[in-house]
TrEMBL record:
Gene Ontology MF terms in the entry: kinesin binding; protein sequestering activity
Gene3D superfamilies the record matches: Tetratricopeptide repeat domain
GO cellular component annotations of the record: cytoskeleton; mitochondrion
One GO term (biological process): in utero embryonic development
Family the UniProt entry places it in: Belongs to the KIF-binding protein family.
Function: Activator of KIF1B plus-end-directed microtubule motor activity. Required for organization of axonal microtubules, and axonal outgrowth and maintenance during peripheral and central nervous system development.
Subcellular location(s) of the protein: Cytoplasm, Cytoskeleton
Segments traversing the membrane: none
Residue ranges, compositional bias (Acidic residues): 54-66
Name assigned to this protein: KIF-binding protein
Xref: Pfam families: KBP_C
Keyword Cytoplasm: yes
Record SUPFAM superfamilies: TPR-like
């Protein structure tokens, strides 16, 4: 690497880099790109001093697409001799001009410079002096095409970078030169350690961009794999923003939660907690330039977002346990519970030994800190009330943490979602509770937190959310009524207080189901002939439960009872008639439809007998 550039070239290049690093807000308000344009002018002067690029290269033209830049296109060779060194320096300048134009939102010009950079480097792409620059140019083209929403093109560039890194590490392996070194005298060249650090950072960026591209392409498995690799490498090379790293790890946990991989999800969330705790405690570096804790609103928002990921973890794990152990009417099946207990040891043996090694973040003290958080949280499905309560309390802790930031004033939708999750935690906990009175109290807590939201919300602006809350409150009252009926059935002679309570709960459930159904009406208060697909199942369920509720009203007035039976029949008949004219609806409520047909058949006979009895008296 003799033939160092002259002092004038070196000085202009270093000055251009310094101007490129100036943050936009430090420029005059009316000239936000002043420093960028200054850097561009210097880079163009450097290019002129280096002289024109050779025009007799026996390689593809500069406007070839990414498919022509595959690794097999021509045999790579070392960049030796003054001519090759000049080409490399021209490529470095083209790269920086490309990034410069992209930074000033001149994407087409930026693309031209980056493609020219690749064209100049192609014969030497696998050499010590070129590989890092080649990968960086392809990474930037990948980002550029991704921003244009040309995702396949972006993917091609980024996968080419990944393949080139792998090939270089396999065939050569020694730390390559950083692009800036082509403009440094020999005595200022970087150490092997610093070269390695910079090259690995380039590759980490490549994996990070690939993760985003795969996510955009809905290749979620692959996106999660690359996201995990990126996070792991950032820790290994100590190159991360604690806040950004923590939120990315927490987001990755949601992928694992959806896949029901709770050990992996727990690990991501535990790591997120530990790394988030580093904010303001670790010294600033090139990769963590500002103290993130100095932005209090962003700090509290990210803390709230991580808390919401923990809530989903607790809730989904409990709900998965419920699905595994419930019978056909949604109650605890003791046989299924026993089977899952027998499987637990096998799950522990397999998962602890195999899966834990696959997802581990960090080493040494960091690994120990993450493990300390993990050990306090279960990842196996809870099989009884005590185990479920443990998860419930953890989820409730994070509900309080999330609500500190996501308050009703300013974050209406987020606040409501957190409250709905809190309600869902109580609902699923009630499944594990054997005592019916305590189950009633859990549903009462749900109603107490949901009903105030109906006062705060304007249905005109929050129609979908209003419907969700109305339906959920109705269902909570419905469940409470069923529990009170079950309690009364166990008593020889239920007193008037219990009867009054059952009717009160019935009335409240009817009120909220009716509010939900009324929200489906048009401005003229007419119920739709065709119910939208998004509300079809809840609408049919509401109709079914209204029918059942009218049949459950306890009254000593025969005339009133007959009216209730007639209203009940009317709603059952609506379900049957609607499903006959809309066959797609039948698939949404198969069980309820069969019961509705049965009631449409039985109720008229029951009502006739009732009328005959009334006539006799």
């Amino acid at each position: 690497m003799a033939n160092a550039p002259g002092p004038e070239i070196r000085e202009k290049f270093q000055a251009a880099l310094a101007l490129s690093r100036v943050e936009l807000h430090k420029n005059p308000e009316k000239e936000p790109y002043k420093s960028k344009y200054g850097a561009r002018a210097l880079l163009e002067e450097v290019r002129a001093l280096l002289g024109p690029a050779p025009e007799d290269e026996d390689e593809p033209a500069a406007d070839d697409g990414p498919g022509d830049q595959a690794l097999g296109a021509g045999e790579p060779r070392e960049a030796e001799g003054p001519g090759a060194q000049r080409v490399l320096r021209l490529a470095v300048v083209e790269f920086h001009l490309g990034v410069n134009h992209i930074d000033t939102e001149e994407l087409s010009a930026g693309e031209e410079h980056l493609v020219r950079c690749l064209s100049l480097l192609r014969p030497y792409r696998l050499s010590l002096g070129c590989v890092s620059l080649y990968i960086q140019a392809q990474n930037n083209l990948g980002i550029l095409w991704s921003e244009r929403e040309e995702i396949e093109t972006a993917r091609t560039y980024l996968e080419s970078s990944e393949a080139l890194y792998s090939q270089y590490m396999k065939e050569i392996g020694s730390p390559p030169l950083d692009p800036t070194e082509h403009f440094l005298p020999e005595e200022e060249k970087l150490t092997e350690q610093e070269r390695s650090k910079r090259f690995e950072k380039v590759y980490t960026h490549n994996l990070y961009y690939l993760a985003q591209v795969y996510q955009h392409m809905e290749m979620f498995e692959k996106a999660a794999h690359y996201c995990h690799s990126t996070l792991k490498r950032q820790l290994e090379h100590n190159a991360y923003h604690p806040m950004e790293w923590a939120i990315n790890a927490a987001t990755l946990s949601q992928f694992y939660i959806n896949k029901l991989c709770f050990m992996e999800a727990r690990h991501c969330l535990s790591a997120a907690n530990v790394i988030f705790g580093q904010i303001g405690k670790i010294p600033a570096t090139e990769d963590t330039p500002e103290v993130e804790g100095d932005v209090p609103e962003l700090y509290h928002q990210r803390k709230g977002e991580i808390a919401r990921c923990w809530i989903k973890y607790c809730l989904t794990l409990m709900q998965n346990a419920q699905l595994s152990m419930q019978d056909n009417i949604g109650e605890l099946d003791l046989d299924k519970q026993s089977e899952l207990r027998a499987l637990r040891k096998k799950e522990l043996d397999e998962e602890e030994s195999v899966r834990k090694r696959a997802v581990q973040f960090g080493t040494g003290e960091l690994c120990d800190a993450i493990s300390a958080v993990e050990e306090k949280v279960r990842y196996l499905r809870p099989l009884d009330f005590e185990e479920a309560r443990e998860l419930f309390l953890l989820g409730q802790h994070y509900v309080c943490e999330a609500k500190e930031f996501f308050q009703i004033d300013g974050y209406v939708t987020d606040h409501i979602e957190v409250v709905q999750d809190h309600s869902a935690l109580f609902k699923v906990l009630s499944f594990f509770e054997a005592d019916m009175e305590r189950r009633c109290k859990m549903h009462k807590r749900r109603i107490a937190m949901l009903e105030p939201l109906t006062v705060d919300l304007n249905p005109q602006y929050y129609l979908l959310v209003s419907r969700q809350i109305q339906f959920e409150i109705a269902h909570a009252y419905y469940d409470m009524m069923d529990l009170k009926v079950a309690i009364a059935d166990k008593l020889r002679d239920p007193d008037s207080h219990i009867v009054k309570k059952i009717n009160s709960l019935n009335k409240s459930a009817l009120k909220y189901y009716q509010l939900f159904l009324d929200s489906l009406r048009d401005p003229n208060k007419v119920f739709p002939e065709h119910i939208g697909e998004d509300v079809l199942r809840p609408a049919m369920l509401a109709k079914f439960r209204v029918a059942r509720l009218y049949g459950k009203i306890i009254t000593a007035d025969p005339k009133k009872e007959l009216e209730n039976l007639a209203t009940s029949l009317e709603h059952y008949k609506f379900i049957v008639d609607y499903c006959e004219t809309h066959p797609e609806a039948a698939q949404e409520i198969e069980v309820e439809l069969e019961l509705s047909k049965e009631m449409v058949s039985l109720l008229p006979t029951k009502m006739e007998r009732f009328r005959a009895k009334m006539a006799l008296t």
